[in-house]
Amino acid sequence: MTREAIKGIIDEGTEIMEDFADSPALDAGILSAAQAVEHYEITRYDTLKTWAEELGLPDAVTLLDQNLQEEKETDELLTRLAKARVNRQAA
Ligand SMILES: [Fe+2]
Which of 13, 17, 49, 61 has the smallest number of Cβ neighbours within 10 A? Predict the structure, then answer.
C-alpha cells in the first residue's frame, strides 16, 4: 500500500532538487525536504508509541520510543546544520 503523505514529501524533495539545481539555495532546500521526512517519521512513531502504551505492550513502547528519540535527534542535527551554514549560504 502506497502512503500518499510520504510519497508527497518525497515528490516535493525531488521538485526542490530540480528547481534549485543551479542555485546556492539547493542545500537549504534539500535540508528542508529531509526535515519534512523526519517530521513525518516523528508523528508516526509518536502515534505508534501511544497506541502501544494503550494496548499494554511495554516492549513495543521501548522500541518505538528509541526510534522516536533517534528521529528527534536527527531533526535537531538538521536544524543545527541549517542554522550554522546552509541557510546562510542560501541567503
Ligand atoms: Fe529519520
Answer: 17
Which residues, in sequence order, are CB contacts of 18 under 8 Å at separation 6+?
none
Residue 27: how many CA atoms within 13 Å on its side-chain side?
Answer: 14
Ligand 1 mean position to 78 CA, how many Å?
Answer: 11
- pLDDT tens digits, residue range 47-81? 999 999 999 999 999 999 999 999 999 999 999 99
Tell me the domains of the chain and their CATH numbers: 4-90 (1.20.1260.10)
Distance (angstroms) between ligand 1 centre and the Cα of 88 equals 24
In whole angstroms, what is the distance from residue 31 CA to residue 37 CA?
10
Please, which residues have CB less than 5 A from ligand 1, an ion?
38, 41, 71
What's the pTM value of the predicted model, to 2 decimals?
Answer: 0.87
